[in-house]
Amino acid sequence: MLRFAPSPTGDMHIGNLRAAIFNYILAKQNKQRFLIRIEDTDIERNIKDKDKEILRTLTLFGLLWDDLVYQSNNFTHHRQFAEKLLREGKAFYCYCTKSFLDTKRQEAIAAKKAFRYDDSWAECERATNPYPVVRLRGSKTPIVYEDLIKGRLEFGTNELDSFVIMRHDNVPTYNFACACDDMMYDISMIVRGEDHTSNTPKQILVHKALAYNRPIQYAHLPIILNENGKKMSKRDSASSVEWLLEQGFLPAAISNYLIAMGNTTPSEIFTITEAIEWFSLSKLAKSPVKFDIARLRFLNRAHLARLDNHSLAYLLESNTQSIGALARIYLEEASTLNELRDKIMPILAPKNLIMLCKNDFLQECQMMFASLKPLIQNPPVTYEEFKSEAMRISGLKGKMFFKPLRILLTGASDGPDLSMLYPSLRENLTTIWRLQETL
Predict the structure, then answer these.
(1) Taking the model in full, what pTM does it have?
(2) CA proximity to 190, closest of 216, 171, 160, 168
(3) How many other C-beta atoms lie within 10 A of the C-beta of residue 428?
């Protein structure tokens, strides 16, 4: 079984989504189940309904799970495992207070040494602290594992001092709960962000202490950098999946981009379903990858172009295929749904001629609007016929004809050739040929 384990403490980050996509693909490739585990052990930081938002996002991207669990539902099991470790002497109660440990940490800094917990401190404040934590004894031997992306990783005993597995309120820590759950659900492979690399030896140590010997493969994905070459943070709008969706990027395009980042792929444009056929962790770069919004825009335009007119219209909140046909034309100069809306909404909206004309062609627009109303009610099939009849009725020619006509038809002073637009505009001319009532 493979798993994706988001925390309901914040918005979905593109790094999280990338890990979810890879775990989903690998589960499908290996014909294993795909588990979503909501890691809600940090009760104080959990955000109400954030779990539902995460699940909606995964569904939107087609990452449908076979099993869904909430980590907090396993607290009883985590406590039982901790009690077992205490009985076996592999874990112990530690009565150190935060202030005591802070003092020791400052002493280490002053001595220019790395801070490491000393097991001899465990009983120091027993008389004054009635709320001990439980610590797992540190490793006496190095922890070594083969990362599927990074290669061989080794963590020395000086990096694996005794660490907390149960807090003073009897709630398991992240690493302990995570390790217990991976064991309970028989997880075979874990693909997650590079920031978890230092967590892995601790989780392996938990498994060793619990005599769990089933091998688990680990892969830690390189971090994603922003356009300035620094690690992406919440301050970078593009790091948020929700922000990208709000900007009009398609889930298919976002998935395509996240799979292709730092990867060797057989084609530029593909879906998750297509990627299942050829995806391999071995082809991923080991170094950090830079997020390129221009590249995502290119891919988004390509995925929009893949859609039929009906689907394009639906995404633009219309049930008229002609709107989809219009959108396809405007894809020459738009890359996102928002940009398409910005092109198409002015076409369908009543026109404010004063604002659109800025005194240029205002008189011609007003005259053309009034004189062509009968023609708009019964428009010719072809643009050539429409243009010829409109010229005859209005008496306008050249720039004095085409500029006002474009403004009245599209709500813009420039854009694609009207002969290209007309077949799609014709069906909606009575809606298009309107002025704002304030004029």
Answers:
(1) 0.93
(2) 216
(3) 16
